[in-house]
Specification:
mainly alpha; about 80 residues; single chain; 2 helices; about 0% strand
Length: about 80
């Protein structure tokens, strides 16, 4: 039979693991967004989606910001998991 202290420690460890996964996922998404914008600049607007034109920068920036939000959530979950 587990005690509530044991369950709390297990929950904290689970939150820390989920936070680690979210942190690395967020970092990968940020890199994808930055690569999207870099490819747009280096191809002089011919790629990744030439029909989007300058909106490719908006896509890259939006993806990067979403990645930063995921990264921040992952860091917060790791911090909460370690405190538990």
């Amino acid at each position: 039979m587990t005690t509530s202290a044991g369950a709390d420690a297990s929950t904290g460890a689970t939150i820390a693991i989920v936070g680690r996964v979210a942190m690395w996922t967020g970092l990968a998404v940020v890199v994808v967004g930055l690569l999207w914008a870099a490819v747009y600049f280096l191809s002089q607007g011919a790629a990744p989606l030439s029909d989007f034109g300058p909106r490719n920068l908006l896509v890259g920036l939006t993806v990067s910001v979403a990645g930063l939000v995921i990264l921040a959530a992952g860091l917060l979950m790791r911090w909460i998991g370690r405190r538990s």
